[in-house]
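Please predict the structure of the following assembly.
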Amino acid sequence: MPEFLKVAAPQQIFDILSGFSRLAVEQVDLEHSLGRVLSLDVISKEDLPAWARSTMDGYAVRAKDTFGASDAVPALLEVVEQIAMGAIPKKSISPGQAAEIPTGGFLPEGADAVVMVEYTNPLPGGEIEVTKPVTKGENVLDRACDIAAGEKVLLAGKRLRPQDIGMLAGLGITKVDVYKKPKVAIISTGDEIVPVKQTPSLGQIRDINSYAIRALVETVSALAITLDIVRDEPALLRAALKNAAEVADVIVVSGGSSIGKRDYIVEVVSNLPEAKIYVHGIAISPGKPTLLAQTQGKPVFGLPGHPVSATIVAQVFLLPFLRYLEGEELKREPTGQRVSAVLATSAHSSHGREEYIRVKLEKEQGRLVAYPIFGKSGMMSTLAKADGFFIIPIHTEGIAAGEAVEVYLF
Amino acid sequence: MPEFLKVAAPQQIFDILSGFSRLAVEQVDLEHSLGRVLSLDVISKEDLPAWARSTMDGYAVRAKDTFGASDAVPALLEVVEQIAMGAIPKKSISPGQAAEIPTGGFLPEGADAVVMVEYTNPLPGGEIEVTKPVTKGENVLDRACDIAAGEKVLLAGKRLRPQDIGMLAGLGITKVDVYKKPKVAIISTGDEIVPVKQTPSLGQIRDINSYAIRALVETVSALAITLDIVRDEPALLRAALKNAAEVADVIVVSGGSSIGKRDYIVEVVSNLPEAKIYVHGIAISPGKPTLLAQTQGKPVFGLPGHPVSATIVAQVFLLPFLRYLEGEELKREPTGQRVSAVLATSAHSSHGREEYIRVKLEKEQGRLVAYPIFGKSGMMSTLAKADGFFIIPIHTEGIAAGEAVEVYLF
């Protein structure tokens, strides 16, 4: 059996993951694009707004004509039109002319500013006095001031939020080019693993990992494909992995926490078509016996069988990687929400490994306090009781009570 | 036309919203339960683990038998069995007896502790010497130490996370009782609104709100039902709202930013069956001309027509309310992720209204700095450029540059 020669640091894992190619692209309807990642920059074909508008009730003018105007020496302008709300001005404004305009009204050709009605006096015969000068653009919402035609409004790699979708709707863009969602095949292995519906006999346990990892994968909107539980039989595992590589972009196999079983998974993976084992072992706790490999260009994550370890490794490495595959930059930290908290009791770690400490958060005197939850890694209840976890970095021996920690929420 | 008599403070809005009944319940498969909210406590029918196990290689014993044992005066025990991994012990341990047990092996009846192999010496004739006492439970993972039968493992009102689903899988719970997802009918109104696929003539704008609000509703996994755009015609609006009340749990109508149109929406809503207008106007900016009403027990949100205002009001009031309807506690703050940042430039507000300031976040010298984005509320690009917003409370006149703000991320 192969030995555990390759124990990698967490950052090396991210280095390896960043070498995989992103997924193919597709076009989707704008109304189904929430959370999808753009594969192309979006360029506006239109000006928004398409026409300059007044922001005040008053008179559309050529700013030059009002230069030096005052109560003592008003500028005299001929009113050529009354522009109605929503109507296209019929006349253009020549020197010495003005048009009455409401708030929101379309600016006529030739005009470049609006004088507020307060600074005008109507004269008999369709003329007005302007008693205060305006500068070019004053009281006007310019054409294209929101978005100009030809402008890149959203860049490739952007995950679409509701207001991005709103903006695209405003520009009449009804289809967007996005990366495909990653398809993740999930396989639990082990003679002792039984389907969740089945009552386990002594020594058997239910297939927690398929459910927990499926749900984790769904938190980043990837598509989970749960495959059948595989017994500890190399030929069966090989067949299952080959099938997984055909139906999915990423393969996640869990199980093999004991040395012997872990080695047999490594053995089977090494013998897959075009296989490469990157690491079998990561300097982390929990989750050390994690395998990272590929077959035919498809990444293979071999997660520990213990559900708590499997869940945390998936959160730390798999989920950021899925977001990367879907076109985002690779973030080298867990996905999801992060909060600052004060550590309630000191947490120690072995030098040389990155440690993930599960915590319960309590609000005390207006600040968040993180209480470490200690418990054997097989205990799923410790994870269900936890609100999140913080990281003790690889070259740190611990964090003292009272220090601030960044907690990644589950 | 009715006057704008009822301008409410934001907290009054939440008070009103908390009076609506939660949605009906349904049962779903565990594998489709991510993000659903439990309507009943989940009680375990099983002990987890179902049998005590050893956490060490050694001998299963009765702790009492090792009392006072030392190198000088070892305890002498008869070895009655060699327990194999995963096998059910055949014999029970009587006083003076022990059984060899591997790590993870099932503890035999009668035994209550495990002596590590290091503290034992084998003797000829199937006996051992124990050279160190153990206490009851030492080196043993007790039956039910993770979860006990009858224990409430998750409480009603809990939104299911991946590890919760993993724990339920471990307990063999394959169906969960949850609240139904809220169905939200979305209606845009206004003669000037055209479908997104259509090129607007001058004075028309595309239906941004249907898209942006649909996407917002989807961020909390509620079900959006986009209905047709309704022209400014009371009979048409009435018909659309009555239809919406039939197909959805919550009605969101947007439009009517000008005083006249706003009043006509209030008028139509007041005349719906069993209608009640709670407020028409909230002391907030943007978003003041917001209507809150109900018809036949169904809440009606009348959002401003300006997309930026509509989006922010939905974020602040509608989304927390949808989570409440689905069984969670009503959180009186925007949903989603929150980060602390330092305000880059002072932000002022009118006393007596709560203000939502959009910001762009920049990482500078290891801290987040929030740059307010100022721009006319009609400009969708200001919202697309923003990373989030912070709140200037209702009785605060502003926040100075350099102060900390809590930014709600979009």
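Chain B touches chain A through 70 residues (CB under 8 Å). The longest helix of chain B spans residues 307-325.
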